[in-house]
Amino acid sequence: MSFIGVISDNKCFENIKEKIKEKDTKKQLNLIHINSKSIENIKNIKFETIIINNEVEKLKNYESNLKKICINAEYILLNTDINQTFHILREEKANIITYGLNQKSTITVSSISETDILIYIQRNIKNKKNKLLEVEEKRIKIKDSNSKTYEIMIIYIILTIYAYDIIYEI
Questions:
Q1: What crossing angle do the helices spanning 10-23 and 149-161 adopt, rounded to 10°?
Q2: Is the alpha carbon torsion for 120, 30, 63, 14 positive or negative?
Q3: pTM of the model
Q4: Cα 103 to the chain's mean position, in Å?
Q5: Which residue from 75, 16, 19 is spatially nearest to 50, judged by alpha carbons?
Q6: Do residues 26 and 45 make contact, with C-beta atoms less than 8 angstroms apart?
Q7: Which value, in Å, is the radius of gyration of the alpha carbons in the chain?
Q8: Element (H, E) at 21
Q9: What is the DSSP string of 100-141?
Q10: Per-residue confidence at 84, pLDDT binned at 50, 70, 90?
């Protein structure tokens, strides 16, 4: 079982968790919400992946716990539209995957419509099975009109990292 820590607001976390649960038929992915209330209690959990989709400044008082959580992570996903710099990551050896609507992110979006989103991987990434995911664009159909762009990117990245079948719909 893989532990994935998600630093985000409650609504975003619940949406991501619900969509991952639909795709994760083998029940291998365990998403855990990290916020200022829970960070003290979960600082000793070894997360394979940490997703930072909130302003890290909101957790400033918990920086040592956040660093402890990030130290052992294999992957760190960072929303660079919200967090321009995150100095804790400078020391990390994890695979840092940035995402956002800006052109410098590892994963961005090149097109959005009501029915689909075109996700653009701008730099190669190795997944958990050591397969190289090369630069490409991927069209994803949007099943749920309530899905937000960042949530779709996070879901896509998680499913891609953990080598789930080709994703065409979220």
A1: 40
A2: positive
A3: 0.88
A4: 18
A5: 75
A6: no
A7: 15
A8: helix 10-23
A9: SSSTTSSEEEEEE-SSEEEEEE-S-EE-TT--EE-SEEEEEE
A10: low
All structural domains of the chain, each given as residue ranges with its CATH number in brackets, are: 2-161 (3.40.1190.10)
H helices present in 24-169, as ranges? 63-71, 149-161
The answer to whether 34 and 6 have CB atoms below 8 angstroms apart is: yes
Rounded to whole angstroms, how far apart are CA atoms 83 and 74? 20
Q: Tell me which DSSP letter residue 51 carries.
A: E
Positive or negative torsion for Cα 9, 76, 5, 71: negative
Band of pLDDT at residue 64, cut at 50, 70 and 90: confident
